[in-house]
Amino acid sequence: MTFSIHGLAVSRGIAIGRAVVVASSRMDVVHYFIRPDQVEAEILRARVARDAVIDELRRLQEEIPKDAPGELDALLEVHLMLLQDHALAEAIRHWITDRLYNAEWALTTQLEIISRQFDEMDDEYLRERKADLEQVVERILRHMKGAASPIPQLIAPQSGQQLPLDAAVETPLVLVAQDLSPADMLQFKRKVFVGFITAVGGKTSHTAIVARSMDIPAVVGARAASQLIRQDDWVIIDGNEGVVIVDPTPIILEEYSFRQRQNELERERLARLRYTPALTMDGQRVELLANIEQPSDGAAAVRAGAVGVGLFRTEFLFMGRSGNLPGEDEQYRAYCEVISSMQGMPITIRTLDVGADKPLDKAQPKDYYLNPALGLRAIRWSLADPVMFRTQLRAILRAAVHGPVKLLFPMLAHKSEIEQTLAQLRQAQSELDARGVQWGQVKLGAMIEIPAAALMVRSFLKYFDFLSIGTNDLIQYTLAIDRADEAVAHLYDPMHPAVLRLVAEVIAAANVAGKEVCVCGEMAGDLSMTRLLLGLGLRSFSMHPAQILAVKQEVLRADACKLAPWAQDVMDSESPASMLEH
């Protein structure tokens, strides 16, 4: 039966595919794709784990005391029957062979399907047997986790390396989950999935941001999605309206297939602007830069027509490594890869921004912090671990020898933090000098993402060569809204007068001081904001590569001089959003 689920539209477009539901498990289960030549070995790995559990249960049966209750032996017998069920083995083989799921993923996928069948049974005793199945599956998963994989060439998600996804899965797939961490999203970044649906999240949650960077449709905050959507259901994601349609009728399917084709035609039309200079109608040059998460993203930024990298989020180099952080040489190679891919164009490298919704170890419970958004994160984290901080600074300084590099510090708010940060930079330079290692000059910049920083912007300009406005956090902190919480997502408002006045003040102060200023938050890629930002005097935008051509089209159609008085009227209005609509 066809039904709809409503959420938040965070990445535009239409996606149609079969649902891959990543169920929440009591055990930490990794999800990754294998290569076709690994299928038989992965099936063997599942079978070996199952057989080990069978042997374990049989030994337990033999060791049951004679005076033990008879139910204990009966329970073990039920578990053995489930383990030896031919249908279960064949289903696991199907998910591994046809979908190229790793064994753990195949096992939990089938567990979810059978669990639903148990839930629909009328007999209460049979319904309760679901718990037996869950216990059996968890035993198998524990064996898989404890035993070394017989496939050494498998690349596990924790490794931080690219997954072997070059083997195409023919059926279009849509990922459905309760939530996805930034590291989880990056594991699926090579377009394995045509769309994403999560039950939680907001428009600027990192699930949304990475989905936009992948240029695929996504809906977040669809609260009941992971419960209502079943494994292998046909699903339509309308990323324009924030609607998910499950089990669509042929008529609905045809309508959305037509919309999908129209979207593709629009993309092809925009692609013609790739090599057109970003000049306003009155001849003012606008710098369109790319935000990237991984060194390999540099090539995509160039293909999208970016004239540089305005934000390289280095924290993604550090995530999912179980505490084994990248050393100086590994970071140096990563930064050099980006510099090389940008072909002489400048790159802005932001130092580590972790904490809150981006913990280094995704296994760390979210409630580890009392108030993560206001806790030890970003520059505070780096200053609390100066050895790690200087390791990153030395790697960036060394890489700067090979191309134009700007160094950006996140979440500064206090003069004392600025002084400590610059002292650490000087010490890193001295350490390289002591080793006789060459390092390059870098321009220094500060992120303006805390209202306190925006209000003392003139003081910041005394210390830094450029400013970068991180609108995602600036909005969050100005309005006291958790940007990842769908319960208050409707209050997250880029057009709030207080937010716009802070942004306008920073742009004006930087322009007066003759310093560069860029907007690198999601506001930069929001087409409804392009003309207003141009009217406020912004000439540098940094966004996901997928958004560059659409923003360029807006720039080409704009007359910046005529926009200035209108932008001032918007700023003076108590309802800026209504003025933008008209």
Q: How does this model look, in words?
A:
With 582 residues, the chain is α/β, with parallel strands linked by helices. It has 3 domains: 3-23 and 157-268, 3-Layer(bba) Sandwich (Glucose Oxidase, domain 1), CATH 3.50.30; 36-146, Enzyme I, Chain A, domain 2 (Orthogonal Bundle), CATH 1.10.274; 276-581, TIM Barrel (Alpha-Beta Barrel). The protein contains 22 helices and 16 strands. The chain has helices at residues 39-62, 70-83, 86-99, 103-119, 124-146, 182-187, 206-214, 225-228, 250-271, 297-303, 328-341, 379-384, 386-399, 415-435, 451-455, 457-460, 471-479, 497-513, 530-535, 548-556, 560-572, 576-581; strands spanning 3-6, 8-11, 14-22, 173-177, 195-198, 218-220, 234-238, 243-246, 287-292, 309-313, 347-350, 405-409, 443-448, 466-469, 516-519, 540-543. The strands form 2 sheets. It has an 8-stranded mixed β-sheet with strand order 1-8-7-3-4-5-6-2. Strands 15-14-13-12-11-10-9-16 form an 8-stranded parallel β-sheet. Helix 10 (297-303) links the parallel strand 9 and strand 10. Helix 13 packs across helix 14. The radius of gyration is 26 Å and the shape is globular. The protein starts with a strand and ends with a helix. The relative contact order is 0.10. The model is unreliable at 147-168 and 362-369 (pLDDT under 50).
